[in-house]
């Protein structure tokens, strides 16, 4: 440490003992639903609302073709994405689902853009099923020619047009082998910098494409969606490919008859087992489907069971300004906004802060579709149903932080998510230990890594205790790493954490105070 005597600025350098000790493992949201376009049954990342619009069509109605009968349905997926970003969410994943009977890939017919007698240089198809692909054109323009005929090769550009408007241009392309150019398939199919509208397939590197404009056709809209499409194995499998903790929500849609199609709640079974870091947010039914609001919501919650701390249910739907219709309002499922609030609180206060109360205000909510009485809300909360309601001075707030588990500390969402956060951060931070020599040096490094993760969590209030020793313990020594354990190729570390309980009820007792004596007058309970 420097000898601080002269007034001024002193800079000290501190290197991390492990390159992974600062690993971040907050959850990312994933919404599953129907969309007007986009790659189906794949978890596609969207970093902004405009990113979602380009990839999945925004608020466009979802077209369908059911046995020759065409129509369109309204999906709540874009409203969930919009609410997520409005409430502080950052990045998220979207899984577009299609009816099981509909081919998920290759719905856009392959288009010959080479038009030469010796064969096709490559094929272009639209990214995702649907007739929207019939509005796509590609324009190939020559930029240069390398070599002499008949062995010259083409350097060209590809422009993508949608409804006649140029939306993308890729320059300095070749069929491969020309120094300083980009192979056409590698450029257009790149997952980050590639095209959002088309994919190159069947590339023949010995041929050059014919210049000019070509039109895509043969796109087919999927059949009329059903509720079971939302929880198909293809959809849930796509969610499980996302790395790290996930907050998942299945988004309903309005069917051809105008009724709201809700996802079956049994979908949670698709995530349990191999993954224990995915939490599902379930929406209570809209008012149009409720006969007795409280009883119907309790009945739906009962279908989720009473022993699962990886799922939570929220009700009622929220009323927001309709971003697709200026001046109008719309009732939407709350899960998109709830996931956004969780993301916001993760950043500002940490995953160990229960996403409820005044800080959990829903930014874009004007009101709620239903207003439960205090008695009804008490019964719903007692049965682990999280109620959303207006709070004086704070707006429309999430006023429940319970999972579907009815006992234990993880009956609350925050402790469950804290455990997920700790497990995932430890998993990433200790990956350096794989194949290291299994001795006291490794055990010491593992203990130091675990302490460097758990101590800041305790200091920020994520674990209870007046000291670090009360908040957690880390054991990694010869008492658990016996010779038999070492010979089996294992290194073991035991960790215990004291999780926090949220102050769900604030009880204030007011008493009469008179000349040193007092007696109870009133009790006030908030929460």
Helix content: 10-25%
Distance between the termini: 49 Å
> Do you know the CATH topology of the largest domain?
Rossmann fold
Q: CATH class of the largest domain, anyone?
A: Alpha Beta
Detailed description of the structure:
With 527 residues, the protein is α+β, with helices and mostly antiparallel strands. The chain folds into 3 domains: 28-99 and 223-411, Rossmann fold (3-Layer(aba) Sandwich), CATH 3.40.50; 111-215, Sandwich (Immunoglobulin-like), CATH 2.60.40; 432-527, no CATH class. The protein is built from 11 helices and 27 strands. The protein has helices at residues 49-56, 77-86, 184-188, 233-240, 293-303, 335-348, 374-382, 413-429, 440-459, 468-471, 483-487, and strands at 28-33, 44-46, 62-66, 69-75, 92-96, 111-112, 123-126, 136-146, 153-162, 165-174, 182-183, 198-201, 212-215, 246-250, 253-254, 260-261, 278-283, 311-315, 318-321, 329-332, 367-368, 386-391, 395-398, 472-475, 494-497, 506-514, 517-526. A hairpin with a 2-residue loop joins strand 26 and strand 27 (517-526). It is globular.
Short description:
With 527 residues, the protein is an alpha+beta fold.
């Amino acid at each position: 440490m420097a000898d601080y005597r002269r007034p001024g600025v002193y800079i000290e350098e501190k290197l991390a003992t492990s390159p992974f000790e600062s690993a971040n493992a907050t959850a990312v949201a994933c919404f599953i639903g129907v969309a007007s376009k986009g790659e189906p049954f794949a978890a596609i990342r969207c970093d902004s609302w405009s990113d979602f619009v380009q990839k999945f069509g925004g608020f466009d109605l979802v077209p369908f073709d059911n046995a020759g009968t065409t129509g369109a349905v309204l999906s709540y997926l874009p409203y969930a994405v919009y609410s997520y970003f409005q409430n502080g969410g950052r990045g998220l994943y979207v899984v577009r689902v299609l009816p099981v009977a509909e081919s998920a890939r290759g719905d856009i017919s392959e288009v010959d853009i080479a038009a030469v007698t010796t064969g096709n240089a490559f094929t272009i198809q639209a990214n995702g099923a649907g007739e929207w692909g019939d509005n796509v054109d590609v324009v190939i323009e020559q930029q240069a020619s390398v070599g002499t005929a008949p062995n010259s090769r083409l350097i060209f550009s590809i422009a993508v047009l949608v409804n006649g408007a140029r939306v993308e241009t890729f320059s300095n392309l070749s069929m491969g082998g020309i120094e300083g150019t980009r192979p056409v398939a590698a450029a257009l199919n790149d997952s980050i910098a590639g095209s959002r509208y088309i994919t190159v397939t069947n590339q023949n590197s010995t041929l050059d494409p014919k210049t000019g404009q070509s039109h895509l056709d043969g796109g087919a809209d999927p059949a009329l969606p059903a509720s079971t499409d939302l929880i198909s194995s293809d959809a849930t499998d796509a969610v499980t490919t996302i790395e790290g903790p996930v907050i998942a929500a299945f988004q309903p849609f309005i069917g051809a008859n105008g009724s709201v199609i809700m996802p079956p709640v049994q979908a949670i079974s698709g995530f349990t087992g191999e993954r224990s870091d995915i939490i599902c947010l379930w929406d209570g039914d809209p008012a149009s489907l409720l006969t007795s609001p409280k009883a119907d919501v309790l009945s739906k919650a009962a279908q989720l069971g009473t022993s699962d701390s990886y799922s939570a249910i929220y009700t009622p739907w929220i009323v927001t300004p309709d971003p697709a219709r200026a001046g109008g309002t719309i009732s939407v499922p709350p899960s998109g906004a709830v996931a956004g609030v969780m993301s916001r609180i993760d950043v500002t206060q940490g995953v160990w802060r229960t996403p409820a109360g005044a800080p959990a205000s829903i930014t874009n909510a004007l009101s709620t579709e239903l207003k439960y009485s205090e008695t009804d809300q008490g019964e719903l909360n007692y049965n682990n149903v999280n109620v959303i309601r207006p709070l004086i001075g704070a707006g429309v707030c999430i006023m429940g932080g319970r999972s579907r588990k009815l006992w234990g500390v993880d009956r609350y969402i925050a402790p469950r998510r804290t455990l997920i956060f700790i497990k995932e951060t430890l998993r990433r931070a200790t990956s350096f230990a794989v194949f290291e020599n299994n001795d006291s040096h490794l055990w010491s490094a593992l203990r130091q890594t675990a302490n460097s993760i758990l101590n800041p969590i305790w200091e920020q209030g994520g674990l209870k205790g007046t000291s670090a020793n009360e908040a957690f313990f880390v054991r990694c020594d010869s008492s658990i790493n016996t010779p038999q354990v070492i010979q089996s190729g294992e290194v073991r570390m035991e960790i215990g954490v004291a999780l926090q309980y949220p102050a769900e009820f604030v009880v204030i007792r007011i008493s009469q105070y008179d000349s040193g004596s007092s007696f109870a007058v009133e009790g006030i309970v908030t929460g």
